[in-house]
Amino acid sequence: MQFILFHTDAAGQARLGRIITPHGEIATPAFAPVGTQATVKALDPRDLHELGAELILSNTYHLYLRPGADVVEEMGGLHRFMGWDGPILTDSGGFQVFSLAERRKVGDEGVEFRSHIDGSRHFFTPEMVIRVQEQLGADIIMVLDECAVPDDRAYNEQALARTHAWAERCRAAQSRDDQALFGIVQGGIFPDLRRRSAKFLVDLDFPGYAIGGLSVGESKEQMYATLDVTVPLLPADKPRYLMGVGAPEDLLEGVARGVDLFDCVLPTRLARNAALLTHTGRINIRNARFERDPAPIEEGCSCYTCRHFSRAYLRHLFKAGEILAARLATIHNVHFLLQLMRDIRAAIAADRFSAFKKAFLADYFHSSQR
């Protein structure tokens, strides 16, 4: 993997760059739609190409449990298995182990957990997580980390020690040279722990760095303050990845602080629940006021859904429980965030990101549609 930094906005820390991987290039700042189980829900690879997605995220925990890394490897790796020829990032499964798995037991060697699918017992070690991700074959892979409750100081200190030890073991276990292994900075909302984590991981000289343990219950203000502390400590010549964040306001605030990569299930999850993103806030398309509305979801939107269908039709599909409802809504929401990132990149290139951010947020938060 190669990261090229082209430009930093004259009035701040927003960065314009490019990540070059074995399966293609990623213009940054970038948002990655999430394909947890080797599919972005309701979309196929052709949709994703047409929408302009350049990076997809898949989940090590879920693919390890079903269909199994051995199956994916036998089928030619994750790219061939899911029919996606662009870059893929797989997370380590650490977050899912701590958020989904039942009756887990964490120790210095690794974490024992029960599958959320059938209750079967499994044990993740740093070495095993690297081996699984090497079988999957993603372009960017992640170390195993321990995601702690953000405001529990004692828990974060213990989790940080494990995260650092596991990062060293993951670095040593990696055998493929065509995958970029990212370290993950942890430490909850505690500035000194974040500083300690950043320094430790930077000394290990990873190809890129993720910021984990955010958007997990802390306030927006706490998340932004943690980014203020953490991002400046990460190398300027390597990509910075904020994990699990995808609300439009958070993308803008992250970019303003120098973050290059984001991922989140938010656009697809909202779409399946009839919540649609617009420049003037979210709308619930089930609302009765859209029953006879001939307008698209958003005037001026160039996505397939807005070019062909009305709000009235989308509302009808959701009320009728039609599968097409989720597909058309997902196309729009994913388009919205990918177009937002394109607009952000253009604003950074023109040294007008600060003005763009201010204008976007003013419309997004002060509309009568909300």
Describe the structure in your own words.
The chain has about 375 residues and is an alpha/beta fold. It contains 15 helices and 16 strands. It has helices at about 45-50, 60-65, 70-75, 80, 95-100, 125-135, 155-175, 190-205, 220-230, 250-255, 265-270, 305-310, 310-320, 325-350, 355-365, and strands at about 1-10, 15-20, 25-30, 30-35, 55-60, 90, 100-105, 110-115, 120-125, 140, 180-185, 210, 240, 260-265, 275-280, 280-285. The strands form four sheets. An eight-stranded parallel sheet has the order 4-14-13-12-11-10-6-5. The N and C termini lie far apart (about 40 Å).
Summarize the structure.
With 370 residues, the chain is an alpha/beta fold. The chain contains 15 helices and 16 strands. The protein has two domains: 2-264, Queuine tRNA-ribosyltransferase-like (TIM Barrel), CATH 3.20.20.105; 271-365, no CATH class.
